[in-house]
Amino acid sequence: MNVLSARSVFLALLLVTSVTTMADTSSIAVRASVRGSCVITSADDVDFGTLETGDVTSHEATANVQYWCSNGLSYTLALDDGLHAGGPGQPAMKRTTGVEKIPYSVTITPTSGIGLGPTPSQTAVVKATIEKDHAQAASVGDYEDTLTVTLEP
């Protein structure tokens, strides 16, 4: 009878264990939202160098702007008219020890595009031009201006 009782107890425990250890499953959602961004990583100065008042040609200078935007994100690049503009669309450098100005024109290329992500960075070219008449009429001295480049998604 001991063998039968031991078997009965074992079967009873097996049934109880089976009933109390039932499994269940559930789904868990995994989500992310990627927000686009744009970053200017570096911007070179535009330097015309030394101008001679007797020059008979216009002067050009270029600079590079390194930047990136999130992969697939549309963006625009723009320049303002600087600190010493004579009006909208009329940037000018101001003499550092006076009030005289030298007008110049400036463009940035490209003005828009689609981001490729942070690697590799992209390059925009800033091109500035001083017309020969403005260089010839300038007073002797050092001239400066500050432009702001805006990179906007």
User: CATH top level?
Assistant: Mainly Beta
Helix coverage percent: 10-25%
H/E element sequence: HEEEEEEEEHEE
Determine the number of helices (DSSP H or I, runs of at least 4 residues): 2
Number of DSSP strand runs: 10
The CATH H-level homologous superfamily? Fimbrial-type adhesion domain
Largest sheet, order of strands side by side? 1-2-8-6
- Roughly what fraction of the amino acids lie in strands? 25-35%
Largest sheet: 4 strands, antiparallel
Oligomer: single chain
Rg estimate, integer Å: 35 Å
Structural class: alpha+beta
Shape: rod-shaped
N- to C-terminal separation?
85 Å
Keywords:
rod-shaped, alpha+beta, 153 residues, 4-stranded antiparallel sheet, Immunoglobulin-like
Commentary on this structure:
- The chain has 153 residues and is an alpha+beta fold.
- The chain has one domain: Sandwich (Immunoglobulin-like).
- The protein is built from 2 helices and 10 strands.
- The strands form 3 sheets. The protein has a 4-stranded antiparallel sheet with strand order 1-2-8-6. Strands 7-3-10 form a 3-stranded antiparallel sheet, with no helix packed on it. A 3-stranded antiparallel sheet has the order 5-4-9, with no helix packed on it.
- Strand 4 and strand 5 form a beta hairpin.
- It starts with a helix and ends with a strand.
